[in-house]
Amino acid sequence: MAWATAAANAPACEVAALIGQAKLGETALKVGATVRAGDEIQTLADSRLRLKCVDGSSLVMAANSRLRIDAFEMNGAQRGDARFHLQLGLIGQKVSGGGGWSVRTPSAVTAVRGTEFAVEVGADAATAVLMQSGNVDVRPATAQSRSLAAMLPLVALAGTLGTECRDGKCSAAAPWGEKRVKAVLDRLSGV
Fold first, then answer.
1. Distance of CA 147 to the CA centre of its chain
2. pTM of the model
3. Comparing C-alpha atoms, which of 98, 148, 87 is closest to residue 122?
4. Sign of the torsion angle spanned by Cα atoms 99, 104, 110, 114
5. Average pLDDT rounded to a whole number, residues 98-125
6. CB-based contact 23:44 (threshold 8 Å)
7. What is the DSSP-derived secondary structure letter of residue 189?
8. What is the pLDDT of residue 173?
9. Which residue has the higher pLDDT, 159 or 70?
10. Could you give the C-alpha distances from 9 to 12, 71, 103, in angstroms and in order?
């Protein structure tokens, strides 16, 4: 039991760069601050935040984003399982190493193994996923059991493709226009 408590309190990521303001709960974040499983991070207007995780992965939060770290488990030097919940906004991720990495939103769940991609949740709770490199699987979110989730349609993204999920369905993987890709990447740049 003591080991589980120590693992739960272990740092998951560190604030590597910050433009503008971000909060951990009600506390203002600064470069060098650590975040752990269970922490909820929010970026404010005109802000961007880069997290460097203990496994070497990085995550960028665009302005007006809310992200909770649900789990970040390490097995020695290897990541075991990392789970995030993006409630609103846009995050870009560069995932390294093995182990699980997933991002849940109100309308989708993404699962990856070593890739670079962006996930956005709009005010309408719809989710857009842009694949930059590598592979990612996207499923509609469901409040049902894991066994039911395994039966839901899966959209596999590879290369520079995207999908959108809403109302329990995800669109087929398709190329996004240059203007849309640039708009997403511009919101994540600078940190």
1. 23
2. 0.86
3. 87
4. negative
5. 87
6. yes
7. T
8. 86
9. 70
10. 9, 11, 21
β-strand partners of 118: 92, 130
CA angle 168, 171, 175 (to 5 degrees): 155
> pLDDT tens, 84-109?
999 999 999 998 877 788 999 999 99
Question: 29: which DSSP letter?
Answer: P
**CA–CA gap between residue 79 and residue 42 (Å, rounded):** 24
Q: How far is residue 91's CA from residue 120's CA, in Å, rounded to a whole number?
A: 6
Judge whether 155 and 140 are in contact, CB under 8 Å: no
Residue recorded with tokens 């962006």: 118
Which pLDDT score is estimated for 8?
55
Distance CA 132, CA 146 (A): 28
Listed in sequence order, the residues at least 6 apart from 109 whose beta carbon sits closer than 8 Å to its beta carbon are 102, 103, 138, 139, 140, 141, 149
Amino acid identity, residue 143? A
List pLDDT tens digits, range 16-43.
Answer: 999 999 999 999 999 999 999 999 999 9
Both structure tokens of 167? 């109302």
Which two structure tokens, joined as six digits, stand for 71?
Answer: 């789990």
3 state DSSP class of 103: strand
Q: Helix, strand or coil for residue 44?
A: coil
Q: Where does residue 148 rank: exposed (0-12), middle (13-18), buried (19+ CB within 10 A)?
A: exposed
Q: What is the mean pLDDT of residues 68-97?
A: 90
- Alpha-carbon Rg of the chain, whole angstroms? 16
